[in-house]
Design a protein that fits this description.
Elements lengths: L1 E6 L6 H17 L4 E3 L10 H7 L9 H13 L2 E9 L8 E7 L5 E6 L5 E3 L5 E3 L11 E5 L7 E5 L8 H9 L2 E5 L6 H19 L2 E4 L3 E4 L3 E4 L3 E3 L5 E4 L5 E6 L2 H10 L9
Parallel strand pairs: 1-2, 2-3, 9-10, 10-11
Antiparallel strand pairs: 1-16, 3-4, 4-5, 6-7, 8-9, 11-14, 12-13, 14-15
């Protein structure tokens, strides 16, 4: 299965962000991608009040953000993991940060609502309190997707800060996933030291492919994100990585090679806890 990670530099103009997203998904699909992962905040990065205003229900599929993702999936006959978007939660002040899985026929197959919220004071003075404007989700999500050729494979969904909580990834592995997606808007401060390390660790310890799509560059309120969207294999090798700026990376996910890794180093069957 060929998969891609899309790298964006989203701003506070939803229409422009969605247009750019659709263009890059189309390019990745032309390069053979059957699965495209979008970064966190792919549709909007800006003031929290505006984020609350654009939060939409994903149940009926009529919101502009959901419609744009569904359209991209259908036009490109691709599975899309739609990063993290503001989804109405029933409480206006705190929408969910939700990752949608959309099938090639436009069906919304799964929703993962971010569990771990990013409340931190960083060494560079940046203070981020995601819980002030976001409602936490309640549990992990693992589903099956169908490659064009071959048997269905399990996919686990996470978002950004989740990558620091290995117990979530172990729960997903226990549900039989082969792929874990990590849409992100990792800060420049933490990304330069932790991004590759954490993603490779989650891949190695669970013997899964990790697809991490990231924001890159400067955003409103002078927020800086690290980028380096990448795909890691179950051995921990980086198979593909985006350069600076917007773009995408595409590579083949070899599930037979994954089986060989799991057979030759059967640590998952050696667990005692």
């Amino acid at each position: 299965m060929r998969a891609s990670v899309i790298q964006l530099s989203s701003q506070d103009d939803v229409a422009t962000n969605l247009e750019r997203m659709q263009t890059l998904v189309a390019h990745a699909a032309k390069a053979g991608a059957e699965l495209c992962v979008l970064p966190e905040n792919f549709a909007f990065m800006g003031e929290e009040q505006h984020k609350r205003e654009i939060a939409e229900s994903t149940e009926d599929g009529t919101g502009p953000i959901t419609k744009a993702v569904v359209r991209a999936a259908k036009e490109n006959a691709a599975w899309i993991v739609a990063g993290g978007m503001a989804e109405a939660s029933g409480v206006v002040a705190t929408p969910y940060n939700t990752s949608l899985l959309v099938a090639p026929d436009g069906r919304i197959v799964a929703r993962y609502r971010k569990i771990h919220l990013f409340d931190v004071d960083l060494p560079d003075g940046t203070r981020l309190l995601e819980s002030n404007a976001t409602k936490a989700g309640e549990g992990p999500v693992a589903v099956e997707i169908a490659p064009r050729d071959g048997a269905p494979v399990g996919l686990g969904m996470t978002i950004c800060y989740d990558v620091r909580f290995p117990e979530l990834y172990r729960r997903l592995q226990e549900r039989g996933v082969r792929i874990v997606t990590v849409p992100a808007a990792f800060t420049l401060t933490t990304g330069k030291d932790h991004w590759h390390v954490l993603l490779r660790a989650r891949a190695i310890e669970n013997q899964v492919f990790v697809l991490a799509a990231a924001q890159h560059g400067r955003h409103p309120k002078n927020r800086l994100t690290y980028g380096k969207s990448l795909i890691v294999d179950p051995w921990g090798d980086v198979l593909a990585q985006c350069p600076e700026g917007e773009g995408y990376a595409v590579c083949e996910l070899d599930f037979a090679a994954q089986d060989r890794v799991r057979a030759s180093l059967p640590c998952l069957s050696h667990r005692r806890m």
